[in-house]
From TrEMBL:
Its main location: mitochondrion. It comes from Rhodinocichla rosea. This is Mitochondrial import receptor subunit TOM70. Residues 49-86 are annotated as: Disordered. GO terms for biological process: protein import into mitochondrial matrix; protein insertion into mitochondrial inner membrane. It is found in: Mitochondrion outer membrane. The chain crosses the membrane at residues 22-42. InterPro entries: TPR-like_helical_dom_sf (IPR011990), TPR_rpt (IPR019734). PROSITE patterns: TPR.
Amino acid sequence: IMAASKPVEVPGGGGTAGLSRWQLALVLGTPILLGAGAIYLWGRRAARRGKGAGERKTPEGRASPGPGGESGSGQPDGPGHEEMSPLGRAQAAKNKGNKYFKAGKYELAIQCYTEAISLCPPEKNLDLSTFYQNRAAAYEQLQKWTEVAQDCTKAVELNPKYVKALFRRAKAHEKLDNKKECLEDVTAVCILEAFQNQQSMLLADKVLKLLGKEKAKEKYKNREPLMPSPQFIKSYFSSFTDDIISQPLLKGEKSDEDKDKEGEASEVKENSGYLRAKQYMEEENYDKIISETTKEIEAKGRYMAEALLLRATFYLLIGNASAAKPDLDQVISMEDANVKLRANALIKRGSMYMQQQQPVLSTQDFNMAADIDPQNADVYHHRGQLKILLDQIEEAVEDFDECIRLRPNSALAQAQKCFALYRQAYTGSNALTVQAAMKGFEDVIKNFPRCAEGYALYAQALTDQQQFGKADEMYDKCIDLEPDNATTYVHKGLLQLQWKQDLDKGLELISKAIEIDNKCDFAYETMGTIEVQRGNLDKAIEMFNKAINLAKSEMEMAHLYSLCDAAYAQTEVAKKYGLKPPTL
């Protein structure tokens, strides 16, 4: 599975297997359209150079500027008569309240703001909205969140684009655990502030992640198991070289009889569920693997360890980690089993732990695999990927070197070592080492011209270096070598956006990816993110929901829900306030 492609969420896969999308953005430096809260990404650069994250605590002396830019506080009726007008008396009460507020006397401040509200002429919308917002600020200091939300609602009704009131209400909704309402308010604030206030950006990100986790936990628990596409499964198994269960059947293990017309497995000489499962694997009849391996396990057959590992692997492939773990545990504890089986089980359990964000357990499993089977190249290859995730680049390179020493023809390890060195040089802004790493990629594709991974990783690096034309050529090489790899089309589509801002071409390539593999969640996610940036929010939500139904882990599902919720919040904000962020 290509490291430059969408990270595969199946533990132990090749390339960036096990990386979540936001981790991939960190590891690979993907420039656009990836990561939790990607709805807001277009404004993040502005956020870094924009306003700070200062708390909005103080009450206001004047109302927020209205659409015309005037303060809206109203003019006095005439010289010397302000104190006699209803608005003048309201302003005086508000000013008195501000003094109490600054002195920390919030109950007295509330009384003054209440007086200002009752004195203010009802047609003075902007002034009245300020009085409600100031009273909400005082309630906030007393942690009376329901009252805060109520007063902010009044303020927003009077002045729909009142940033302070919207943000204060968002914080109150957060305290009241009204996540959906919080998200809508903070989304409106982000758009009104042109995504330049870090405090509101951080709240948006926080509530998106909480909503995503909450929804994913419920959805994942009740999800229907879904077998990935045959291309995905074959790519997954191809990332292992020392994996007994993925090797073809030996001559003595199957008869020479032809398969029947339905594609059912030919009869094997032994009545073994495991050998039947292996035959089904060769026929790409993957839906029958779990049931056949279960027969072998229940019969305590001679291939029990192999059957447990194969069943666990397919549980992982369909996204059922809780069912996979007991099988992996059992294989790992079988001291009389083939050491290659135990090491493979440790790699898969270690990758599963990393996917579940348990890096300590993950590292323990990889280290144990290296201890029990030190000549197993797969251990170092997959541990190298773990080390990249943990930002331990030097250790990752050591592991890739050991993999290459054991298997000098391992093009995958050569390419990934090169990419690790490139990332180290790129993040360190060292021009000479970046140049050396780019030369390394040239060597990899020269020495291993049939390795799609080499071209794909080189394309990522070239994109970083803004050498878009050459990156495009590398993706074309990948497609020539692996025409049925949907993720390459997605990356080539993303490149068109970054290089030429060609949305139509980008969407055409991503549509091609879906045509090749209609279970490619990365393609649906990317298409959804592009539709958000085009302003087609309903279409985006449809795409994100398709990706959610195909997600292979709870963590990936949470990320996708975050994207979907962000898009949905924007549709609600557009309806309520007529606010939309800039589109591509």
